[in-house]
Design a protein that fits this description.
Blueprint (H helix, E strand, L loop, with lengths): L1 E6 L6 H15 L3 E7 L12 E6 L7 H18 L9 E6 L4 H9 L3 E6 L8 H13 L2 E4 L2 H4 L8 E3 L6 H4 L6 H7 L1 E6 L7 H10 L4 E6 L3 H10 L8 E4 L6 H5 L3 E3 L13 H8 L4 E3 L15 E3 L5 H11 L3 H15 L4 H12 L4
Parallel strand pairs: 1-2, 1-4, 2-3, 4-5, 5-6, 6-7, 8-9, 8-11, 9-10, 11-12, 12-13
Length: 361
């Protein structure tokens, strides 16, 4: 069977990482894969045999009109590209995120099965994303949600599946559980995009409040965009924090950290899963995450981390101090976090996705 996979923007964020893992697993199970996406991200590393790469140029712009024009072009390109499969009966369209609507529309017009791997929280976003989510519900043969929380916002019930995200075996194998070493780092980490709702400003404020600890944030942006953000918001950085631009490899940052924060503001956005929290747990790091969303499903409060909303910054500050000054507590949290990560295996996810693809509708 042939899988025609579509992903709009190939970068180093969570959704293309998951797609890379899924496609690798499908190839290992005997599927042949065609992948259409943009250049310059983690999907370029997909070197398995039986994966044919097709690429186009796409990037975001600071001008929203330019971004929308580029997005429209990409959808038209995907739409017409898809008709190469018109006379191929055993082809399944695999749409990663709700953005490649052009390919999904073409697939349904040709009578193909269209499977959406739904990563976004469109129900908490603007009209554009809600419209795309509406198209997804009408066009999809099956919808793969990444959490129970996310699935509750799907209006249709038939063909909706929950498959939690997982980490690739190659990623997990880079870490050896060593709570004593992690604790000794005394470093608080955040990995996020440079969006207001991600809590970057609050993370920097915490670093200023807690000069006795080190802080590092890896942002999915260019150095210039980060510098502009700091200047525009009048932010003062202390000597105990480093802001890193977009990285091809984030594993070394987890290996040199003690604790991960996810400060997404639930009043503006809700995490559907929280892949960075799972990545941190695989390195044995306790996490502090919001109380809502799919990311909260990963955490048992006081066991492998804590659930505290960013609005309670004082409480987060105090919890950081408690965790990073009490090794016995830290060791317990770290061991539990590491154990939790083992429940989200690459093999289990790939088996679930393969089963969904094999369904007859």
């Amino acid at each position: 069977m042939k899988i025609a996979a579509f992903h709009l923007f190939n970068d180093y964020s969570g959704s293309p990482k998951v797609l890379k893992m899924v496609l690798s697993g499908l190839v290992q199970r005997g599927y042949s894969v065609d992948l259409l996406t943009s250049r310059g991200g983690v999907l370029d590393e997909l070197k398995e045999q039986n994966v044919a790469h097709y690429r186009y140029s796409y990037r975001f712009s600071e001008n929203p009109i330019v971004t929308m024009l580029r997005y429209t072009y990409a959808q038209i390109y995907m739409f017409f590209f898809s008709f190469r499969y018109l006379f191929r009966k055993e082809v399944v369209f695999y749409i990663n995120t709700i953005l490649p609507v052009g390919a999904a529309l073409a697939g349904r017009l040709m009578g193909k099965r269209v499977i959406y791997h739904y990563h976004e929280n469109s129900f908490a976003k603007g009209t554009f994303y809600k419209t795309l989510a509406s198209f997804m519900e009408r066009l999809a043969s099956d919808i793969i949600c990444v959490s129970e929380f996310q699935s509750r916002y799907i209006n249709r019930k038939e063909g909706v599946h929950v498959v939690p995200n997982a980490l690739s075996n190659t990623f997990v194998e880079r870490f050896k559980h060593n709570p004593e070493l992690s604790f000794s780092m005394q470093r608080v980490l955040m990995v996020a995009s440079l969006k207001k709702y991600k809590g970057v400003v609050q993370f920097i404020e915490l670093s200023n409040r807690l000069p006795q600890f080190n802080f590092a944030v890896v942002l999915n942006e260019t150095q210039k965009a980060i510098d502009d953000f700091i200047k525009e918001n009048g932010i003062t950085l202390g000597n105990n924090i480093v802001l890193y631009p977009r990285q091809e490899e984030v594993a070394p940052f987890y290996a040199e950290a003690s604790l991960l924060l996810n400060l997404t503001d639930a009043s503006m956005a809700v995490e559907t899963f929280g892949l960075t929290a799972l990545e941190a747990m695989s390195a044995g790091l306790p996490v502090i995450v919001p109380t809502q969303g799919g990311v909260a499903e990963l955490v048992e409060d006081g066991c492998n981390g804590y659930k505290i909303d960013v609005q309670e910054l004082n409480k987060i500050e105090e919890q950081i101090k408690v965790v990073l000054t009490n090794y016995k507590l830290y060791e317990t949290l770290s061991t539990s976090a590491y154990s939790t990560s083992k429940h989200y295996s690459e093999d289990a996810v790939n088996e679930m996705v393969s089963s969904i693809i094999g369904l007859k509708r």
